[in-house]
Amino acid sequence: MTRTQPEERDMAGSIQDVRVALVTGGRRGIGRASAFALADNGFDVLINDLEHDEAAEETVQGIKDRGRRASFIQADVADLGQHERLVREAQCFGPLSCLLNNAGVQTRHRGDILETPPESFDRLMSINLRASFFLTQRVARQMRDDDRGDRTRPTRSVIFISSGNAVIATAAQAEYCISKAGVAMMSTLYALRLAEYGIAVHEVRPGIIQTDMTKDVFEKYNGWVEAGGFPMARWGQAEDVGNTVAQLASGRMPYSTGQAFFVDGGMHIRRT
Ligand code: NAP
């Protein structure tokens, strides 16, 4: 099919906006699952990550197999000097309609908050918090300049992947919890600012999701998960998060912005 840009015709012949998403840290895990779900919902997808390896190529191919355009952009989002190129290259399919701030890291070592090293604190803030803040700022300015005018029914979105640790304290991972609590406030602040441009801002808070990030703590958590440590006694899968992201980005929650969507099997519910 030959596509016109930045719009295309749907099966009924109506002109539709081409929807383009940028997914940071998207070559595997939650980023990859979100990219696939976005592609299933009609988005062309740009994948960003640190390494352009086999996993990155598999992700790009998976998007193409779903009938959408895809490309990979190698960049370290923590390096603000790379953002100009990242955002420029991300518009090769047309203006961005969704930014998914997914790239994130855990602490390398769990430890006592009384011993948290400054290097670990800075690393977590730099990748999990500062990178998303300034990348969103740059993309949001671009979206503002490309204002489509409908502020009552957002067609564009910025989505942050935070964590249940935005509100649940894990004392041995203080810097992770603090960075994710910051992401939650960042999402609220951008929601306030961007509504007037028809841009919805959502925070997605995963619980315990089975990805490479959690493989080292699988044994530690598995017994708790299976014993019903929270209402839905199973590990979350990356697809659980990806499908939520795609629902939000597709505009199926047209009167929602600035709130957190838990994808955690009910882990956040306070119980007696
Ligand atoms: P993952 O499997 O480790 O994937 C994260 C991806 O982000 C990796 O490919 C990683 O590359 C990339 N990345 C890291 N730093 C980057 C940077 N500076 N620039 C560009 N890409 C970078 O983790 P995941 O489980 O899918 O997690 C994705 C997001 O969900 C993170 O924000 C995480 O905090 C959040 N989350 C995860 C869970 C969970 O249980 N898994 C729960 C709550 C929230 P490298 O591998 O090369 O570092």
Overview of this protein structure:
The chain contains 7 helices and 9 strands, in the order βββαβαβαβαβαβααβ. It has 272 residues and is of the alpha/beta class. The protein has one domain (16-263): NAD(P)-binding Rossmann-like Domain (Rossmann fold), CATH 3.40.50. The chain has a 7-stranded parallel β-sheet, with helices on both faces. Strands 1-2 form a two-stranded antiparallel ribbon. A hairpin with a 5-residue loop joins β1 (7-9) and β2. Mean pLDDT is 93; it is low at 1-6.
Counting DSSP H or I runs of 4 or more residues, the number of helices is 7
- Round the Cα radius of gyration to an integer and report it: 18 Å
Low-confidence stretches: 1-6
The mean pLDDT is: 93
CATH C-level: Alpha Beta
Known CATH architecture: 3-Layer(aba) Sandwich
